[in-house]
Amino acid sequence: MFWAKNICALCALCFCLCLSGAALAGEKADMVIVDKSERMLYLKKGDKIFKSFPIVLGDNPIGHKQQEGDRRTPEGRYVLDFKNRNSKYYKSIHISYPNKEDVRNARKRGVKPGSGIVIHGSPGGISFSSRFKRREDWTDGCIAVGNSDMNQIWNAVDVNTPILILP
After folding, report:
1. What are phi and psi of 139, to 5 degrees?
2. What is the mean pLDDT of residues 19-45?
3. pLDDT grade, residue 32 (50/70/90)?
4. pLDDT for 58-113, tens place per residue?
5. Do the domain assignments include residue 20?
């Protein structure tokens, strides 16, 4: 009888651990949407937004990124093309800016389009200060989120997930 109870308890524990592992794996996004005016990042699967996160942007957030150093966050359709666990911020997911149109437009104006636009957590892995809570924009054009949010985004998106950045 003792062994039967222990085996039942062990089976129940294994079942619960399997379920929690599936829950931790979570839903995968097939699209990321960033709404700059709302300061929100949305994870979308099919027609359903299943998760949302507050964000901060570049110091000069209004309008599409025009050139290197303008501290703007680009607008348009891109792809999340690689992940970096060892970035100078707490993880980062690279956005495929500039695209061909961005490069062409920058050339017409005689400027460099800029590069290195990512979604990232806080610098050096430290938690965001009250500045993040007030949503004060501070990046050089990147999209910043809290570290716990970055973990969730990291797990929910795969390389080559499309991202739409709205004004």
Report:
1. -80, 175
2. 84
3. very high
4. 888 888 898 898 889 999 999 999 999 999 999 999 999 999 999 999 999 999 99
5. no
- Phi/psi region, residue 91 (left: phi>0; alpha: psi -120 to 50; beta: rest), is left
Token reading at 96: 């495929």
DSSP conformation letters of the chain: -HHHHHHHHHHHHHHHHHHHHHHHH-PPPSEEEEETTTTEEEEEETTEEEEEEE-B-BSS-SS---STTS-PPP-EEEEEEEEETTSSBS-EEEE--S-HHHHHHHHHHTS------EEE--BTTPPP-HHHHTT---BSS-EE--HHHHHHHHHH--TTEEEEEE-
CB 150 within 8 A of CB 128: no
pLDDT digits (tens, 9 = 90+) for 95-106: 999 999 999 999
Whether 130 is covered by a domain: the verdict is: yes
For residue 58, what are the domain limits?
A: 28-166
Residue 95 lies in a domain: yes
Q: What is the CATH number of the domain that holds 124?
A: 2.40.440.10
Instruction: Write out the two tokens for 146.
Output: 């809290």
Residue length of the chain: 167
Q: Is residue 41 part of a domain?
A: yes
| Domains held by the chain: number | 1
